[in-house]
Amino acid sequence: MTSRIPGFYRLGVEERRRKVAEIASLSDGEVRVLEEMGCLGELADRMIENVISVHELPLGIATNFIINGVERLIPMAIEEPSVVAAASNAAKLARPTGGFTARADEQVMIGQVQLIGVPSPHWAAMRILEHKEEVLDLANEQDPVLVKVGGGARDLEVRVLESPIGPMVVVHLLVDVRDAMGANAVNTMAEAVAPRLEQITGGRALLRILSNLAVHRLARAWVRYAADVVGEEVVQGVHAAWAFAYADPFRAATHNKGIMNGIDAVAIATGNDWRAIEAGAHAYAALKGYRPLTTWEIDGNGDLVGTIELPIQVGVIGGATKTHPKAAIARKILGVSGARELAEVMAAVGLAQNFAALRALATEGIQKGHMKLHARNIAIMAGARGPEIDLVVREMLNIGKVRVDIAREILGKIRKSK
Predict the structure, then answer these.
(1) Catalytic residue ranges
(2) pTM for the whole structure
(3) In terms of DSSP bridges, do strands 294-298 and 204-211 run parallel, antiparallel, or are they unpaired?
(4) Alpha-carbon distance 320 to 188, whole Å?
(5) Sign of the torsion angle spanned by Cα atoms 40, 44, 47, 48
(6) Residues 43-64: pLDDT tens digits?
(7) Which of 43, 91, 265, 317 is the S-S candidate for 65 at Cβ 3.0 to 4.6 Å?
(8) pLDDT of 356
(9) Are 380 and 402 in contact (CB under 8 A)?
């Protein structure tokens, strides 16, 4: 067996699939599964390289959300059980106090240009700022369409950094990307201004790339959970659970992972780059030592109040947001018209997801509710089909053992009794 397949990228989807099937000894049944191309069909082969099939995720709808006074159905693409149900329940409990309020900054992304070998770094930094308007004009020449719709390069930031190879000058090109995520526009501008920056500084431009730590593109949301709705135990428990995450990065990592369960699921459903959002969120959490992205406090009335703040770099134009047919449908279900509005929705979903997780952890424990939903996956893995699934799930939960071997044993008894 070898992974070296000359000309693999030149083959059609079916030929690639056949090659992989031969090398990996796939059965006819396994090949038939790969032949299912879903709604993408031939489009998949134009989206990425070396396509052999389409890998789909369940698309669920979180209900009960009120965000900025607007009722929302939230499409979420995710494989993990309980996430959609938890978000829906958290949103339901927030309804008596008006739901979630959210705000997002302008859609400004950072393009970085790294300059090395600069003779006088601090002097060079001042020189760059003296030529700011010239550099911005040069950047904006690269994307007249973006400028026409109100976007474009807005400002420059210049830093001198000490590094293992000596001092370097780093220029931040701040670009308003409007309703796009903006990576292509920002990268094009960064590459275009690099030669002029070399002339100004006498250094050499090396990296010219956007930063996913989008500190000028923050989204925030806040919510109040009334003590007489969620109960005093939940108010105190969530507050204490958040304090644990604030004090301990080991806990904060999982705390923030739960937040991203919701945000990533909406990003995937709408065709956005969830990896960019993840990178920005965790970098932002680590700016002053790794911290939770949310806060939970108890106000003067004894109610639980929560906030979230993080970079959310999303678009409603460009990339898979337009090419993936289900992404367009998901946006229609969601009812958002622009990137800022989408970022606000995602921040609210992340806050709801966090409340749901902390509430479960601080009361009955995370496994009780999660295992009810996880048991369905176990039953299916064991071979249960149709009505058998619920029967196997019920019996596993009754005996308190949710494992594949137990599910197979129960399934065998069910089938023998027929």
Answers:
(1) 80, 257, 273, 370
(2) 0.89
(3) unpaired
(4) 19
(5) positive
(6) 889 899 999 999 999 999 999 9
(7) 91
(8) 97
(9) no
